[in-house]
Amino acid sequence: MKRLLIAAAIGFASLTAHAVDMPISAEEAYAKIQLADKDVLLVDVRDPVEIMFVGFTDAVHVNVPYLMVDRTQWNAERGVFRLYQNPDFAAQIKAELDKRGMSADAEVITMCRSGSERGEPSAAFLRANGFPNARFVVNGFQGSAIKDGPQAGFRTQNGWQNSGLPWSPKMNPEKMYRLDKR
Predict the structure, then answer these.
(1) How much is the pTM?
(2) Which intervals of the chain are annotated as region Disordered (predicted)?
């Protein structure tokens, strides 16, 4: 039994030794996807309706929402529609990797609005479900909200949009999560 536990610990240590750190900056993510020979998949994990109003970068390979809005369920306490986890998220990521000839060991970088509510949890979820090199863009697409002054509450610092990286208010319909194409 002791040998079995030692073997399992060594096996686990060797698996985690090759895994990358989860956080990555927007600039680092953009640099990685510019390398055409790199095994990297950049995924926007926001609900497409959010993208429609906030903006999008065509540098993203695909949009696969991690959390989706249920417009039939209102959360009165928070004053928002209920969010639910996309039940097919891991399978949809696997399908995107397969489509590009990549394995589950490829680097999957997720990006949400701020990096915290969907970016980091989606990367952790992927790691727990067989994608050991899942990461997330720190500060996400829009960046952090300013805490003080006349711009308080506005997301005008860090993140993809505020780093001088390419983005547009327009969506790319070929990359968007669309129910009419599933």
Answers:
(1) 0.85
(2) 155-182
